[in-house]
Amino acid sequence: MSASNLQPIPDDDEDLEPLPEAGPTLEEVRLDDPALYLNRELTWLAFNARVLHEADDPRNLLLERVKFLAIVSNNLDEFFMKRIGGLKQQIGAGVHTPSVDGRTPSEQLRVCQTRVREMHVEQKRIFDALMVLLAARGIGVVKVNDLTPDAQGRLREHFRANIFPMLTPLAMDPAHPFPFISNLALNLLVTLRYPGGNESYMARIKVPVSRDVSKRLIPLDGTNTFVTLEDLIGANLDMLFPGMAIESAELFRVTRNAIVEADIEAANDLLEMIETELRERHFAPIVRLEVQEGIDPVHRGMLAAELGLNEEQDVIEVKGMMQLRDLFEITGLDFPDLKDAPHRPVDHPLLANDRRNIFHIIRENGPILLQHPYQPFSTTVERFLRTAAEDPKVLAIKMTLYRTSAGAILDSLIEAARNGKQVAVLVELQARFDEAANIGWARRLEAEGIHVNYGVLGLKTHSKLIFVVRRDYSQLRRYYHIGTGNYHPGTAKLYTDLGMLGCDEGIGQDLTELFNYLTGYSPPPSYRKILAAPYNLKRGIIEKINREIEHQRRDGSGQIQMKMNALEDVEITRALYRATRAGVRVDLIIRDTCRLRPGLPGISESARVISIVGRFLEHGRIMYFRNGGDEEYFIGSADMMGRNLDSRVEVHAPVENPELRQELRLILDVQFGDQRSAWEMDAGGTYTQRVSTDDKAKGAQETLMVVAEKRLAAAGKHKEKKIRSRLLSHFQWRLRGKD
Fold first, then answer.
1. pTM value?
2. Cis ω for the linkage preceding 534 (within 30 of 0)
3. 3-state helix, strand, coil in the chain (%, to 5)
4. CB-based contact 323:186 (threshold 8 Å)
5. Bridge partners, residue 625, by sequence
6. d(CA 567, CA 664)
7. Which of 462, 481, 619, 652 is catalytic?
8. Is 451 a catalytic residue?
9. pLDDT tens-digit profile of 98-156?
């Protein structure tokens, strides 16, 4: 919708506040106008279009471009499992209520399917272009039948020894019903007949892409030329069907709905309920069928009918290679000149040259701001938890786990329990796609005598918290880590996140009460410093937005800056519209979903929205309110989404230390000033990538990598200077002693 669809809104200040008992004001009614709001699903797809652009951008190195192409394929799979699956559920339940942008679930589904098909065309174009460039470097994916007889013979022997024993052809006829098709598994639909016979038969073969059997791309004689596993199977079907005539072998794949949620209120055992949900997800309804280009129309229709799909809407004919996420296998090839130099995080300046107990460092130096992946997860968060496990003065450790992996985090928790400390861990069993892993971690921790809790009934616990109680001298002191990202060492290398180590008494008291609520029952009536969902986070943000409106009215100083992954919540969006209408400067860094339209005349002319796309996934969250000069900064776990603010336990904490605020200010300024990796949104919701006149311009992420290195180098020089000063003083003292 264009800005011309919007009706003019009065500028009277009286209309900014609702009149008591008078129903909605004119301004409130206009803020319900669907033309003001962008669609959640379409803005998420637009984000992936920006990622896809990175695959097409010649400024990126070749294997990095291949990586971005694989990322988009993986993201679209999740989009169908979660978002398309959710829309289909609404349609199946007879929901016709439009979203805030005025689209019913059916309308959203149609426009999303159209947009995805357009993206598939773009993916194919980019894939073909990249394959040409890869071939020039001796990297390629070829057909088995195009190889020499000798090469085919060696592949056939590999097939006989390593793949053939793992294949199970399943016939499809009146005596053999249509087989179960696993989510995201590649399958061959084989049509065959007996020699001399006229009747055709069908069989399905699951392509066994797995760590235990075979990768999708099989190298040819140790070269960088590959054949796909399904092509190798197709070229050797005579082993599976000896004596039969093979008429066709057509590739297909299905995507199942990942949103299968049981009735939590009625569940007696949350762990058992999640395990049941995982089993049901395996058999969840199918939301998409992908088939190879040129498939027999009769076979295409048969598959759609057997799988219960609308052939016109739910079947996508894929041109070229299906399941492009497997291109990640190519990005791992040893071609240093075709990919970014490996990123090596540098230690935090306060921690790099100080081997003391980390609690002493925090107590004496004040809070520490962590920036991942520019600083290592291992020497910061893992060091904090490891020290807590080993320190005899630490009495208790409490932690929330949303996503993690085997390694130092779990090992430290187990060691702490073995060392006699009180350890309580809240494991979120409903973390999407990590449910099975989290069940495993929970059981392992329970077996070590750790108090494991699954959170608050009806709420996901999404906060990122470590809470440590330590006896310092004659008193107990509370230390903490508050983060924006999961306690996962793998994603800490790929996502940009923030964390704060500290021992502020007010925040410590707030976290004490929060953990008591998570493991007990009653939430506290209020918190001293933190903002916590679902209780005071949304209300607190809206109050701070309204305060900026008052500052703007008073002296024109209203300013708000926010960095987040998504802006979807309608109430927050409306509050920001009220602020921009009043003239408050609103600057937003939003990775993907964004409902707000900046630059609308008379409504959001003072708003700016940018998105950063780079080698790392932007994941950190920052809030800044100018507050008439008495500035406020917050970092935390929540995006501005309804689910985060209303149905999750989230925490945002104030950053009060002046030096830490300077670090956050630098991050915001660098990203808002990015002329290489930033995309700016216009009033219509279209993003345009900024273009610098400087061919050597660095993106925000590259700039922050350099900043981290310079800070560490400066800290090292300062440390050396202090050591030299102490040595000189000691030498002079000895000389005076000799005199």
1. 0.89
2. yes
3. 45, 20, 35
4. yes
5. 560, 632
6. 20
7. 462
8. no
9. 999 999 999 999 999 999 999 999 999 999 999 999 999 999 999 999 999 999 999 99
